[in-house]
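During the reporting period the student researcher (J.K.) took over the structure-prediction task from the postdoctoral fellow and processed the backlog of single-chain submissions. One of the processed entries is reproduced below for the supervisory committee.
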Amino acid sequence: MKITVLLLLLFLLSNQQLFSQEDSHIQWTFEPRTDGSVHIEAVVTLMESTDSYTFLEFSDEIRIKNVKAYEYESGDLIEHKFPWERGKQAIMLIFNQSTPEPFTFGIEFDLADFMEEKKEKVFIFEWQYRSEEEKFHTAEIFLQKGAELLDFKYLEPVRMEEGEQVIIYYGGTSKGKNVFSFLLAFSSSGKDSMELGKHHEEKKDYILASFYYKKALSIYSRYNYFAETNPEILEELYERNLSVQKINADNTFEEATETFEQEEYEKAKRQFEKAEILYKALKDTEGESQCQEMITQCEKILSGVQKIYADNTFEEGIEVFEQEEYEKAKRYFRKAESLYRELEDTEGESQCQEMITQCEKLLLAKKAETLLEQGKTQYKTFKYPSATKSFFQAKDIFEELGNTEKISECEEWLDKIEAVYQTMLVCIGGTVVLSLVLWRRFAENEEESN
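J.K. obtained the following structure tokens:
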């Protein structure tokens, strides 16, 4: 308490030395808000008489709202307007008469969307004031309750108060190229994330606890001022995060062990792999090694189970094959082949491939037999063009299979159809000749009667 009072006295004394009766000065009060706006109040002392005064210039992209200007002592309102020129706007005060020397007025207003919002709701408040004549400045910046100062640039604060609400104090001058400027980075996200981490840790939700501790660490470690002045907070976050990650890894290992004991080896393997990743992140070589041992055990057991499954599938394929259900047998052999391939069992894979080939040949032979029988039926019902097509298709398949006996049978049936066509041609030719002979005799008889 004594230190705070002493600092306040030193700050007030420094202001008294900084401002004399002949100095023009501005006392600023800033309240940056987490919606991106800033509420500003200023007490301005003018040393020279004037009818109007341009207080501030801004880019015309900035929205100025709720402006109120007044005489400091009487509280009487002062007229104001917003002149615009070349992309700039200003706050200009219009006085009813020339101001006395000195003259003090107050002004307050809001700047909407003035601050830049960075990742994880970190706000950047930057202020710059230029003046042709020398002006002296003091500034008080009241951060919103719960917000923390993360970093600053350009001008070092005269002092700071950190409690329920952080207050930053500045002092400086402006003239020509010498600009009164400062930049503050602040946020409540770090504090909020740390509290959420603690909350989830108490609830034994260690994954979410770690997430929020990491988030708080990410925010704090990016900004030099906070990281340098609060190393104990970063250390606490680091230790808490390590602790919950270790608990999470141990819990995952225990769950995997329970699953393993229930003989759910595929699921247990996945859980041990997850625990291994968690231990690796913690650089816990002992935990990582234990996981690797259990993963190897799971793989051995799964390999044995899969070999039995592959053999059973192959045997089912043989049974169906013997029942001459070759399409269904082929599906069993393909499934068994895939299982043997995963096991790197080349012998089992080769056996499956041989049986698949046999199935395909027998399926082709069956198709060819069907086509051959179909051709015979078509032949018997005098559908010779369709029968020809069926016999040719059957013959092509038998040639692919190398079945010479069946090839010969197809050719015999094709020869029969050819013979039918020849007979039909002879018949058609004989009919034409007989018709011609009869016509000629008819013509001769007609001539004799005439």
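The committee noted the following: The domain at 302-436 is CATH 1.25.40 (Serine Threonine Protein Phosphatase 5, Tetratricopeptide repeat).
J.K. will present the remaining backlog at the next meeting.
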